[in-house]
Amino acid sequence: MEHPAYGTLRQVTPYASVLLAHNPSPMTLEGTNTWVVRAPSAGDCVVIDPGPDDAEHVRRVADQGPVSLVLLTHHHGDHTDGVEQFVELTGAPVRALDPALCRGAEAFRDGEIIKAGGVELRVVATAGHTADSVCFVADHDEPAVFTGDSILGRGTTVVAQPDGHLGSYLASLRLLAALPPGLRVLPGHGPELPDAQEIATAYLKHREQRLDQVRAAVRDHGPEVTPRQVVEVVYADVDRSVWPAAEWTVQAQLAYLRELGELRG
C-alpha cells in the first residue's frame, strides 16, 4: 500500500504508521499525515498530530490505541483541530512546544528525549514555518525524523509572517541538514522521503535561489516593489492556486532582506 491511502493505517517503518486525513488542498497536498508511533513489542502508542476536525479521521486514529501520549509538531489547525475530540476519546495527554496547546501535561523542551510507545523521540525545535514548529528524531532501526511542516513530502514549505520567520527557518534547515545521513523524512504532508540531510540541503539551496530571484526583482522594480509583483516574476512557474501562499513567503523574504540591511523600508 502506497501514499496516498485514505482511511487505512499504512505501515512505513517497523515503529511508524500513518493515517492520511481526507483534507486535500493546495496547502495540505493530499491531506494531513497523522503518525502512529509504536515499537513492535509495545502495548501503547504515541500519536503525532491528530489532524483536522474530522470525526471519522479522529475516531480511526483513536481506534489504534491505547494512546499514551499525543505530540504536536505545531499549532496549525489541519494538525490540531481534532485534538479536543481525540482527548475525549482516548484520555491521552497532549504535549507541544507551546504550553497553550498542552492538555494534562507540560510543554516539551528542545533536545528533550520523550519515551513512550516503546520508542525514544528527540525533540528538535525548528522554528520558521511557525514559531512553535518542532521535529522528532527517532534513533531506532530504520531511523527517521517526523518533520511536521518543516519539510514536506513534496514541494516546499510556506513561511508566513508574522508567525513564520525566514531567518529562523534557514537556521532550522541547517540543523536538519546536519542530522546523520540516511534518516527518513516522515512529513506532515505528502509521501515520506529517503534522506533528511539531503532534502534539507536541497531546501536550503532552493531558498537561496529564491532569495536571489527576489533580490533581482527588487533591483528591477525598486525598493517599493509589492509582494504580488515579486510573485508574478519569481513564482510565474507555480500554479496560481498557491500564489496567495507565495505572497506570504515573499513578505517573509522581503522582511529577511530588510533584516540583512539589503532593503530599506
Structure, described:
This protein has 265 residues and is of the alpha/beta class. It is 31% helix and 19% strand. The chain has 7 helices and 11 strands. It has helices at 55-62, 77-80, 83-90, 166-177, 196-221, 227-234, 243-259, and strands at 10-13, 16-20, 33-37, 45-48, 67-71, 94-95, 113-116, 119-125, 134-138, 144-148, 184-187. Helix 4 (166-177) links the parallel strand 10 and strand 11 (184-187). The longest helix has 26 residues, at 196-221.
Average pLDDT reading: 94
Shape designation: elongated
**Distance N to C terminus:** 52 Å
Radius of gyration: 19 Å
Would you count the extended β strands for me? Answer: 11
Pairing-aware structural class of the strands and helices? alpha/beta
Largest sheet: 6 strands, mixed
**Secondary structure: helix percent:** 25-40%
Order of helices and strands: EEEEHEHHEEEEEHEHHH
Unreliable segments (pLDDT under 50, ≥5 consecutive)? Answer: none
Spatial ordering of strands, largest sheet: 1-2-3-4-5-6
Q: What does this entry show, briefly?
A:
The chain has 265 residues and is of the alpha/beta class. The protein is built from seven helices and eleven strands. Helix 1 packs parallel to helix 3 (83-90) and helix 4 (166-177) runs antiparallel to helix 5 (196-221).
